[in-house]
């Protein structure tokens, strides 16, 4: 500090200028106090920062104001220079002290060797990492090439799967059409009949039904003949033993009566002879023959009726297949398109009012699915289209959240254009309960109990979730039989009229329906 510098005795010669400068500094210090620059005089006295200050003796000899060229150790050489009336103190030079350390050349060499070893280790580590990086890059390139190869192979497999599925579907379509053409002659077909100014389709039975009708007519004719012969046989029935033991007095009026019947002398009419009476054995023999013939005819009639019912069931399938083929031929999706670059359409399953259901194959998940294509009428107003689309989106949102083994799963939803959108559902091989009941007419109590238990289980799930869901269109046509039989599993489908029971729309008096229309009843 400046105080220590003033009290520090000078070992060298003092000049007059030093005394004057010290006295001037003392006056200034005594009068106005120390300046902040006085504490940094050892750096040049210019008030600069101690970090940036560099001793003039070290910086350069040109910047130094001291006269001597050599610097003495521990001996400052102050010089006072006056510019005008204000004397300035020359900054003191920094003293440098040489200190002897314990480092020797061996230690320095050891440190240097250690540093070199560390540097070599780091360089070796860097080389190893570079080699590992190169190996990883090479492996990444190999894996990338392998991935591209697998992608190409997968695309080939998908293309081959599509080709095989299309070939199989085409063969099935041809086989179904050939079978339908054969069944047209056997079971029947639709013919267009004109009624006035309009044309209607009328069903014409095939030769199988015609043959059965002829057999039924023959059986009825045979029965009528047998009944007529039985009546004639009853007239030739022999008298009983009680009548044969009657008194002879009564026999004379009968003989006279017979004579009168066979032709009296004065009777102008010729009367037919009475049938000759049979013996009791002959009567029982003919009676037994007629009973056997009636029993045989009854058996034949039952067989014909059973065959007729079987043909009616087959005819229902035939009519359904004819309608399906007709709808498929008129559909715009009949040529196996791939929707959303994922779902390959195979053949039509059914058609509703504004939708078509196709059996499809999911190329990503490698599974069969049912694609329901909703087509809006282009002549509808935009408001009606928006309303229909809103209901379909609500069905999608409701159905997507459901996860139960007795409810058909909804896989995906996408749009084809402004008037067409699709929903992808779980595919079931069997028919619905409505078709099963129409085909078989009845089912056992155990089968009915099993179906009701599964339906109640699904309805309980819909009631327990939050918020609860009401199906609103539960009927046999919306209950699918997984295996096509009544003794297997069932699944509930078609949530188009379902409703969420949220707190806003549910009240004490009931809940308003926002669904489009109402369901059809079986």
What does this structure look like?
The protein is α+β, with helices and mostly antiparallel strands and 522 residues long. Among the domains are: 2-89, no CATH class; 338-500, Transferase(Phosphotransferase) domain 1 (Transferase(Phosphotransferase), domain 1, Orthogonal Bundle), CATH 1.10.510.10. It is 48% helix and 15% strand. It has 11 helices and 14 strands. It has a 6-stranded antiparallel sheet with strand order 5-6-7-8-10-9. Strands 1-2 form a two-stranded antiparallel ribbon. A hairpin with a 4-residue loop joins strand 7 and strand 8. The model is unreliable at 16-31, 41-88, 244-257, 259-265 and 512-522 (pLDDT under 50). Residues 294-328 form a coiled coil. Pfam families: Pkinase. Residues 343-522 form the Protein kinase domain.
Descriptors:
522 residues, alpha+beta, Transferase(Phosphotransferase), domain 1, six-stranded antiparallel β-sheet, two-stranded antiparallel ribbon, 11 helices, disordered C terminus
